[in-house]
Specification:
single chain, alpha+beta, Protein Transport Mog1p, Chain A, eight-stranded antiparallel beta sheet, two-stranded antiparallel ribbon, 40% strand
Length: 197
């Protein structure tokens, strides 16, 4: 009997909830983001007060490889799933333009557009619009790495929300860590395809 009680307590603590390993559960869109996506650990969540901006989740590692996932609707009442709607196209163009805007504001320098198009991940071929840029961060007290960086922006829509992914890493690690990027995006695609699982 004593062992049964101990097992029950352990089960409730670690295995009694389907959401026990979640980092964030979005009740509105029924999306569950886990503590780990690909090889990257959940590092924090932030809500934005301005209407339509939603929230962001940070995943990353200890080598200046960071991934931010933004979930928001930009005050649109209806957003068609996928990448073919005008709303998604407009949002993607705005997201890509933000990189060059950061250069004009003095935060980035030597910005170079490398790719604009689509990317497909996972066995079911989940599609994102994809923009890739190269830049350097302008020297400042809080900046820890001054070399060239690669920034990938991926955008799609699901369950009435934009899903924007900003994935940044050192340029010199781009080839070596391509597998990590693909793994992250494939796992994220599975999260988006299987809400509330």
């Amino acid at each position: 009997m004593r062992n049964l009680i101990i097992f029950s307590v352990i089960f409730m603590m670690f295995g009694g909830s389907g959401h026990s390993q979640e980092a964030y559960f979005d009740e509105e869109s029924a999306l569950i983001f886990p503590m780990e996506i690909g090889k990257f650990d959940f590092q924090g969540q932030r809500n934005y007060e301005q209407p339509g901006l939603g929230y962001s989740l940070r995943y990353g590692d200890d080598n200046f490889f960071k991934v931010d996932i933004y979930v928001y609707d930009n005050t649109y009442k209806e957003i068609k799933d996928g990448i073919s709607s005008k709303e998604v196209a407009d949002e993607f163009n705005s997201a890509a333009a933000n990189i060059t805007s950061m250069e004009k504001l003095g935060y980035y320098e030597n910005v170079e557009e490398l790719y604009i198009g689509e990317a497909v991940f996972g066995q079911k071929g989940f599609k994102f619009l994809w923009a890739q840029f190269q830049y350097e961060q302008t020297p400042a007290d809080e900046v820890q790495y001054f070399g060239k960086r690669i920034s990938n922006t991926y955008l799609t829509a699901i369950n009435g929300k934009f899903i924007k992914v900003r994935l940044t890493l050192k340029k010199k690690e781009q080839i070596a860590r391509k597998g990590d990027i693909d793994s992250f995006m494939k796992d994220l695609s599975a999260v988006l395809l299987n809400p509330n699982q």
